[in-house]
Amino acid sequence: MMPRPRPEILDIAPYVPGESKLDGNRTIKLSSNEGAFGPPPGAMAAYHAAAADLHRYPDGGTVALREAIGARFGLDPKRIVCGNGSDDLLQQLTLSYCGHGDEVIMSTHGFVYYQIVGQYAGAVVRKAPEPDMRTDVDAMLAQLAPATRVVFVANPNNPTGSMLTGRELARLRAGLPEEVLLVVDAAYAEYVEDIEYEAGARLVDAAANTVMTRTFSKMFGLGGIRVGWCYAPEAIVDVLNRVRGPFNVSLPAQAAAIAAIAEPGWVEAGRAHNTRWRDWLGGQLTALGIKVWPSAGNFILADFASAEGARAADAHLRAHGIIVRGVTGYGLPQALRITIGTEEECRAVATAMAEFAMPSG
Ligand SMILES: *Cc1c(COP(=O)(O)O)cnc(C)c1O
Fold it and tell me: Does residue 215's CB lie within 6 angstroms of at least one atom of ligand 1?
């Protein structure tokens, strides 16, 4: 006999991270939507300076970090909870608000971690169809059932890049019963230029049933050190503070994140670069006859019309030392997700793809 997990645990397909390395000397990693410019210099300095205090426990209340986030984004620090990446918070929220027999709703090509945490909680995960690779508010609402407890929306969504406007998001919230938790995952909020966009704070302020999650892993360039945060109604903050790990953000992570927020011009420069080169790379691929879905994030979804086409393109890019992300696990075997890197990296992708011949058939 051996210890047995709850049966639903073994139905979970483990998360597959973007690959990092190829054989050969030059690898361009565009598989995990990491910031294009490495960590902010001030964050690196703060990380090094934290070394002398590594014997100390971190501040379990992340007070200075929450104050820095609050000041930067105009939010009340008391309603912010930090986590070991936003994945940590997504997991704690799901386990806290749903369990066996309950249901969660996500979109068909929504961020795959929602499925993992939903199953972990013992819930049934319902997926709303996503016509034209875009979260559809009515399709999401059509999945509602008496057992629905949590609804997840990534906005912008990974891997499709699609974005809901603030009005569409508000319409989704208005269509959900008050007791259903809406989790707005705004991991890519810092990249969005569209004035119709609203990351989610307004919905959090409007009622007691919406949470916005954010991360330092993308624009702020700190994916390796794991810092995420959420903005939530007081009662939900209270719940998270009961269940989260008491020291769930490490000491160097807190120091680096505070410094990243203070880095002058970092977000503005990163956003401008991203928009410019996302448009450029999208245009190059489109000119080569490859369909590129509109993206508000730091990546594009290139559609090769068939799984065979996507596999061939992936192999071709790998032969040029470029790793992108296959998204078969998202129900998109015909597509590849390509992170917007530096100018040089974007040019390398375009150059390699210009030499790519689609398999005919
Ligand atoms: C990258 C990403 C996250 C961030 O995860 P962290 O745990 O904060 O690194 C969350 N949601 C989506 C949709 C993402 O793409």
Answer: yes
| Ligand 1 and 85: CB distance under 6 A | yes
Summary mean pLDDT of the chain: 96
Q: pLDDT at residue 264 above 70?
A: yes
C-alpha–C-alpha distance, residues 265 and 254, integer Å: 20
Same domain, 207 and 328: no
Q: Quick check: CB of 333 below 6 Å from ligand 1? A: no
| pLDDT value of residue 47 | 98
- Is there an atom of ligand 1 within 6 Å of 185 CB? yes
Specify the CATH number for the domain of residue 58: 3.40.640.10
Distance 113 CA to ligand 1 centre (A): 9
Q: Which domain holds residue 100?
A: 41-262
User: What is the pTM assigned to this prediction?
Assistant: 0.96
Pocket residue to mutate for ligand 1, from 113, 163, 216, 219, most atoms within 8 A of Cβ: 113
In a domain, 21, yes or no: yes
Cα angle 89, 183, 81; round to 5: 35
- State the total domains in the chain: 2
> What is the per-residue pLDDT across 20-38, written as a single tens digit (0 to 9) for each?
877 766 799 999 999 999 9
Residue 17 CA to ligand 1 center (angstroms) comes to: 11
Does the residue 284 lie in any domain?
Answer: yes
Integer Cα distance of 112 and 287 in angstroms: 31
Mapped onto helix, strand or coil, the DSSP state of residue 148 is strand
The residue from 242, 262, 282 where one domain ends is: 262
- 201 and 293 together in one domain: no
Q: Which of 227, 262, 297 is the last residue of a domain?
A: 262
